[in-house]
Amino acid sequence: MRIVFGLLIVGVALASPIAQDWPVPRTAYPVYRPVYRPVASNSTVSSIPSNKTALVTDAISSCSSTWMTISDVTIGGGTDHRTGFTTAVSKFCDMANGSTVQSQDYLSMATEVFLNSGKDPSKYGLLGYVYFEIHNKLSSSHTVDATSCKKYLGTLSEVGGQCYGTTNGDTKGGTYQVGTNGVSYHALGNSVPPKQNALNKLLSTTVLAAQSVNKGSSAPLNPWPLDSLNSVLPTPCHSHNDYDRDIPVFEALSAGCIGMEADVWLFAGDLVLGHILPTPGRTFQAQYVNPLKTIIDHNGGSVYKSRPSQTLVLLVDFKTSDAGTLDAVVTALEPLRQAGYLSRLEGGVLVKRAVTVVASGSAPFDRINNGDGIPDRDVFYDANLGALGGSTYTSQNSYVASADFQDAVGEAKTAILTSAQMDTIANHVSQAHEKGLVARYWNLPGEYLWEPLEALGVDLLNADDLSNTARVPRLQ
Ligand SMILES: *[C@@H]1O[C@H](CO)[C@@H](O)[C@H](O)[C@H]1NC(C)=O
Ligand SMILES: *[C@@H]1O[C@H](CO)[C@@H](O)[C@H](O)[C@H]1NC(C)=O
Ligand SMILES: *[C@@H]1O[C@H](CO)[C@@H](O)[C@H](O)[C@H]1NC(C)=O
Predict the structure, then answer these.
(1) Does any ligand 2 atom lie closer than 6 A to the CB of residue 104?
(2) How far is CA 170 from the centre of its chain?
(3) Where is the signal peptide (predicted)?
């Protein structure tokens, strides 16, 4: 890992003497591509279909495509609980009970549901939303009755029915048509909340539309669904390859990850995100610092409301090595620093707070070790897990120790490690823990290694497919 970085730093320095020019693509960098996308990205921009429903009478007129678990589900090997479709339907119908929907009008609400992507929901899935909408196409008004509402929407999850998934007990949701071109009851899964103020609130007169998420410069989500995260329990995952995610902070926190990773470039004076190349305008501050500040404010000082003592590792992977990168990171962190949310070194002792910033990649160890340009000593180093002997790395300069799994441990085509590999890992972990550091491997051959790694004491499990983290036990 270090050799690779060394060569790359030299390569970038030679080819790119002007620090703020477009950096040279680092093709030698090992790009680990996730096997799955968390949720089909176009399912995040769909909205409730209009009245383009077939002329069926008192029956399902269409199914949607985003799978939701029907029953409430126990995840994390029995350590966590997520809401299914039936609970969401009851919530909506009970709230809507007695409401009058005028002719041509709508009554809508979105609420939390577990999206299992058509897989075993006890092992695979992420927090998402189901959008409910009652669309009255009659010339007279329609009064919602909770019992009928549950019956109509419940048809969408009926065992053996059109929208039901036999293998995993899930539903695609869809539309139930009351009468002939009369009243439509819609229920559609989505990975993000709606634009409208309809999250766990009834809203009339408008069609729900999903918040648009993109990899550009706009705010990740607005409004931010803060309360949706209230009951999420943290689990030892580290959200890796964040540049691939539309809404990195939200996705990582909705999975309960205690680590997340931002690849940053100093580009044209801005600290921007990107992996192979920077994405101009997509700033570290807008995508990470500001949302985290909002969340921690909301929770009264912690990232996870359910576990206030849990610090979040914000791993900042430096893609540019000039001194300005560290300065820009220190500056961008100012809102979190001002609020007292950053772990820091005080009198030579680590004082943990909501967020622990760890600098990786081309970050300058010496400056971090000396606190040079980091007056509050609130940036720590990502030590080399494979080289913890000696006195270089300590809990005063580092917080995480990482290594490339395949370099440091070797190949592993299945979850069965050789005893030599287990010894290597156990050694790395005990060295890290003796120094008070958190152990992590990157470039895992597969997420099937999480269980053996966790059993050997590895603290952060690198996750590319966050839906997979549903199977990982929550922290107790
Ligand atoms: C989603 O988008 C991809 C790429 O744009 C496309 O190939 C695919 O068919 C879309 N899926 C759905 C369900 O619309
Ligand atoms: C809904 O249906 C009505 C009558 O069938 C039609 O006039 C109207 O244009 C439709 N609206 C949309 C948005 O398709
Ligand atoms: C719905 O409201 C009616 C009165 O409008 C009430 O009689 C009924 O019990 C309510 N149903 C539920 C499930 O709350």
Answers:
(1) no
(2) 22
(3) 1-15
Q: How far is the CA of 141 from the centre of ligand 3 (A)?
A: 18
Bridge partners for 100 per DSSP: 143
Same domain, 346 and 393: yes
**Residue percentage of the chain with pLDDT more than 90:** 79
* d(C-alpha 290, C-alpha 218), whole Å: 12
Cβ–ligand 1 contact at 419 (below 6 Å): no
pLDDT category of residue 49 using cuts at 50, 70 and 90: low
CATH code for the domain of 413:
3.20.20.190
Name the closest ligand to CA 66: 1
The number of the ligand 2 atom at minimal distance from the alpha carbon of 50 is 13
Considering the domain architecture, whether residues 252 and 166 belong to the same structural domain is answered as no
What is the C-alpha to C-alpha distance for residues 176 and 62, in angstroms, rounded to an integer? 7
Q: Is the CB of 99 under 6 A from ligand 3?
A: no
- Structural domain boundaries enclosing 410: 226-471
More confident residue, 223 or 251: 251
Count CB neighbours of 323 within 10 A: 14
Take residue 70 and report the two structure tokens written for it: 């029907």
Cα–Cα distance measured from residue 436 to residue 128, given in angstroms and rounded to the nearest whole number? 36
46 in contact with ligand 1, CB cutoff 6 A: no
Residue position matching structure tokens 């603290």: 459
Cβ atoms 401, 384 nearer than 8 A: yes
